[in-house]
Design brief:
Elements lengths: L4 E5 L1 H8 L9 H13 L13 H10 L1 H6 L1 H13 L3 E6 L4 E6 L4 H6 L10 H4 L3 H8 L3 E5 L10 E9 L5 E10 L6 H20 L3 H13 L4 E5 L3 E5 L1 H4 L7 H5 L3 H5 L5 E3 L8 E9 L5 E10 L25 H14 L5 E4 L6 H10 L8 E5 L5 H9 E2 L12 E2 L1 H4 L4 E5 L6 H13 L1 E3 L6 E3 L3 E6 L3 H7 L4 H7 L2 E4 L9 H12 L6 E2 L1 H9 L5 H16 L4 E2 L22 H13 L3 H8 L3 H11 L2
Parallel strand pairs: 1-4, 12-19, 12-20, 13-16, 16-19, 21-22
Antiparallel strand pairs: 2-3, 2-6, 4-5, 5-6, 7-8, 7-11, 9-10, 10-11, 14-15, 17-18
Length: about 625
């Protein structure tokens, strides 16, 4: 962690400071922070454990919604990595109040005891020197370990935290990883910083707030050809539907045949592309600057160099939007063939499939193959927002319609999707009130913004999706029957990964997309392990598994079992031990025999207790 303020000391130094005695010069940084905590009035012997809940916590959570939903896959992956190492992953707002607590592993119980939970305030004024509060004051990454904490009750903790900044550089939250002081792991601070930078990167690409996201979407979708937003780091960060249909990778070099340095040197100019899916097209490069004038991204607009059509444009019959969905499974292909026929109709579409199977990807393909492809596609996750916020986001609101509302009012997603497609993901999570409002809109195309009596009209094609058993929810009364009949014009399913017959080819395809260079091959043993797993997270889980394997392989030409996440395939009957794992199992047996407890065995092996438990279950020991 470059620029990390690392505060660590022992209890003796803490007691010397408490009694007014001098500290070594080497502890000057710690002494400065303790003095600040004492001046703020934080009690070192009895930490204030105030925890907010209910409405105030919901309001704070709503305010950091862009952070929570900027990169959910990144947060999920980080949470899994931290749980493996018995660390809690915490997201706090700019006041130091924890709004989301994830992971924990073997540390979860202790995290609850010391109030590392949603609603707890960890500002310096309340708890003194601690990673969350001190990172907010310092404005940079901080580690606070052991007795460097001002409060005695936190001396058993090791914490790393880093501020999260919006596109204007303002601190909008803090990401923190905490565990036992004995649980030091060099991977943790690196993973924490990578997660924070990934969230900030998405915020930069999207503008960090809904209004900027909407502006970016409108700019991209208004262009008649493919349009991309590219950033430092040689990555494509956003694309319109005409570009997404041909976007097989987010690597800038593969897409445009140049890196960020080459793009930045061409700002304000046009050039014929020579490689990538849009070879032969003319690209215009427009700068995207911060308010300080720093170029942080570029808008790349593509158009034909001569008369003709662009690859990825819906007028080109050789390019189908459904080609973005890879699959050789017969059930999947049959579903895609039906989707292609339904796409050309005005029917509403209902997607019923498990989470992680690719429902949003299918919705985008349907929109791209429809007569509305040149109009916006607006995606709304009905399960990600509380009712009041979802109502405002979907229908819009009048000026000052509620506390915190824009004084100018705001058009909602219905207005944004006018003429195009509205994709309502997780529609089964809609409350009865919102179900009634949606049904009313679907009947005649009219709606009202929150707090605005004037009726408005929008013409949208609706695609809905859920991983729930929607017919069962209709029978139980949780979902309106009349709305169900209204949205199920065409019903499509996607087979779960455990039932697909193309795991090997799909894994190969994903590896090619995820690899920076030549994709490594899967060993037979690794492929067998993949096939033995039941994939509750479906394709999304497979993608994260392969990303983990690529990271562990670190450029090796073959992915082996040892490169896969260690918990993959655990559960059920003990698995047959491969030759490469025999030494690991024998070491595990010896450690269990030599040590009085599993915790001691885990410490001797240098692994997390949660890892030890999974290995015991895996090998039937």
């Amino acid at each position: 962690m470059g620029g990390l303020l690392d505060l660590v000391t022992d209890g003796a130094a803490w007691r010397r400071f408490r009694h007014g005695l001098a500290l070594p010069t080497s502890l000057g940084a710690v002494r400065t922070r303790w003095e600040r905590a004492r001046t703020a009035g934080a009690d070192p012997d009895r930490a204030d454990e105030r925890v907010i809940s209910g409405r105030e916590l919901r309001e704070r959570t709503d305010r950091v919604e862009p952070l929570l939903h900027a990169a959910p896959d990144v947060l999920d992956a980080a949470a899994a990595a931290f749980a493996e190492r018995d660390f809690s992953l915490l997201l706090a707002d700019a006041d130091g109040v924890v709004v989301r607590a994830l992971a924990g592993g073997g540390f979860a119980e202790e995290a609850s005891r010391v109030r590392l939970i949603a609603g707890a305030e960890w500002s310096e004024s309340i708890r003194g020197t601690n990673a969350i509060g001190t990172a907010l004051v310092e404005g940079g990454p901080v580690a606070v370990r052991g007795a460097a904490h001002w409060a005695r009750t936190n001396h058993a903790l090791a914490c790393w935290a880093t501020p999260l900044r919006d596109p204007l550089g303002r601190v909008v939250g803090v990401l923190d990883a905490t565990s036992f002081h004995t649980g030091l792991d060099p991977v943790v601070p690196v993973t924490l910083m990578a997660t924070a930078r990934a969230i900030e990167s998405v915020l930069r690409a999207s503008g960090g707030v809904s209004a900027s996201q909407e502006l970016l979407r409108r700019v991209l979708e208004a262009h008649p050809g493919p349009a991309l937003v590219v950033e430092r780091g040689d990555r494509v960060r956003a694309a319109n539907t005409r570009a997404a249909a041909s976007l097989g990778t987010t690597d800038l070099r593969s897409c445009l045949g140049m890196d960020w340095a080459a793009v930045s040197s061409r700002l304000g100019r046009r050039q014929i592309l020579e490689v990538g899916p849009w070879a032969g097209c003319r690209a215009s490069f427009e700068p995207a600057e911060t308010w300080q004038g720093e170029v942080v991204a570029a808008l790349v607009l593509l158009e034909p160099a001569t008369a003709g059509v662009l690859v990825g444009d819906r007028r080109d019959p050789s390019c189908s939007p459904f080609s973005a969905i890879h699959g050789e499974d017969d059930r999947l292909r049959a579903s895609l063939a039906t989707a292609a026929r339904l796409a050309r109709s005005p029917l509403p579409i209902l997607l019923l499939a498990e989470t992680g199977t690719g429902k949003e990807l299918l919705a985008r393909a349907i929109h791209g193959a429809s007569p509305r492809a040149d109009r916006p596609l607006v995606v709304v996750n009905c399960g990600a927002l509380p009712e009041a916020l979802l109502e405002s986001e979907l229908f819009g609101h009048a000026p000052n319609a509620f506390t915190g509302a824009s004084p100018k009012g705001r058009d909602g997603h219905l207005a944004a999707a006018d003429g195009g497609t509205l994709f309502l993901d997780e529609i089964a999570e809609m409350t009865p009130r919102l179900q009634a409002m949606l049904l009313r809109f679907l009947e005649d195309g009219t709606y009202q913004r929150l707090g605005d009596p004037r009726p408005r009209r929008a013409n949208v094609r609706l695609i809905s999706a859920t991983c729930r058993d929607l017919p069962d929810r209709v029978r139980s009364g949780a979902f309106r029957q009349d709305l169900f009949f209204r949205i199920r014009g065409g019903v499509l399913g996607l087979p779960p990964l455990r039932e697909r017959t193309d795991l090997a080819s799909l894994s190969e395809h994903l590896l090619h997309r995820l690899s920076e260079g030549a994709a490594p091959r899967l060993s037979e043993a690794a492929l067998a392990r993949l096939r033995a797993h039941d994939w509750p997270g479906n394709v999304r889980e497979l993608r994260m598994t392969l990303m983990h394997a690529l990271a562990m392989a670190d450029g090796e030409p073959e992915l082996c079992v040892d490169h896969l996440p260690p918990e993959l395939g655990y559960g059920g009957a003990p698995a047959e031990v491969a030759p490469l794992e025999e030494q690991r199992v024998e070491a595990l047996r010896r450690a269990l025999a030599l040590h009085p407890s599993r915790a001691a065995a885990a410490d001797a092996l240098g692994i997390a207790r949660s890892t030890l438990y999974r290995m015991i279950e895996r090998y039937g020991l």
